[in-house]
Design a protein that fits this description.
single chain, mainly beta, Porin, 15-stranded antiparallel β-sheet, 12% helix, globular
Length: 272
């Protein structure tokens, strides 16, 4: 079955599970909505462990599907009464299909990206955080990573009012060490997002994830998937957990692929 067929089967099932959870969950609507609001905030004072799966169609001569599991722990650290340090780490596990005939597939660990946001503890309509981002060459195979060490600035600003959360997260990475035979890293990342709460812990999110590679060939600088998703906060036993499923459309890519995909996320929440 191609990925369009998978989307047609998977999305209604996943959305049905999320909406069904609205009726059977033991968590109160108020606490579910509070947790849903926190998960929409990248610098919320909330420990969480998101496990994000992405299936993206359109790689290589076989028009194959790449699978990526992003393990993304978020750990806030209270520095004092005025400031928190929010650590957000992305550790990808990738199944990369062959990009040329006879190359074969690769399955393994990709490069790790770790962001650190210094954020005020005082709440308000406008929330922000800023700090460094690091690129760590943890890939288990050459084609799964850059083989470069990198660093740069990262920041996020957002507004939460009524049922809305909207804002933008951005970073830029420059490589400063690593394999001299590999291309230098000089890339910007922009992630505008908007979330609307429907109540009972259910929310809708739309976002773009734009990466601009400044060292790429002319006309091949930009990768930009657009994602629309639905999420639900519930409990399994006493464990708060968030489920999310969405469709991804690649508005622009360097070589015309991938084309589209699906995203599913399970997020374990640990409120203080």
């Amino acid at each position: 079955m191609n990925i369009t067929g998978r989307i047609g089967h998977a999305l209604p099932c996943a959305i049905g599970i999320i909406l069904y959870g609205s009726a059977v969950t033991s968590v109160s609507a108020q606490s579910a909505d509070e947790l849903a609001k926190a998960t929409a905030n990248p610098v919320a004072n909330l420990i969480s462990l998101p496990l994000q799966s992405n299936w993206e169609k359109g790689y290589g001569p076989g028009n194959d599907t790449q699978y990526t599991l992003n393990v993304q722990p978020v750990i806030p650290v209270k520095l004092n009464d005025e400031w928190n340090l929010i650590t957000r780490t992305i550790v990808p596990f990738v199944h990369q299909p062959e990009m040329s005939i006879g190359q074969g597939d690769d399955w393994g660990l990709g490069d790790t990206v770790a962001s650190f946001f210094l954020s005020p503890t005082a709440g308000g309509r406008v929330i922000w955080g800023a700090g460094p981002v690091l690129l760590l060459p943890t890939a288990s195979a050459a084609r799964l990573g850059t083989e470069k060490w990198g660093a740069g600035p990262s920041g996020v600003v957002l507004v939460q009012e009524a049922n809305w959360t909207y804002g933008i997260l951005a970073n830029h990475l420059w490589s400063f060490a690593g394999d001299d035979t590999r291309r230098e890293v000089n890339a910007s990342f922009l992630n505008p997002f908007v979330t609307y709460s429907l109540g009972q812990g259910v929310s809708l999110t739309g976002q773009a994830e734009l990466t601009y590679d400044w060292n790429a060939e002319q006309g091949k600088h930009t990768t930009m998937p657009l994602t629309i998703s639905i999420g639900k906060v519930t409990h399994i036993g006493k464990q708060p957990i968030s489920f999310n499923v969405g469709y991804r459309y690649f508005a622009e890519t360097p070589n015309g692929n991938p084309e589209h995909g699906i995203r599913m996320l399970v997020n374990f929440l640990f409120p203080k």
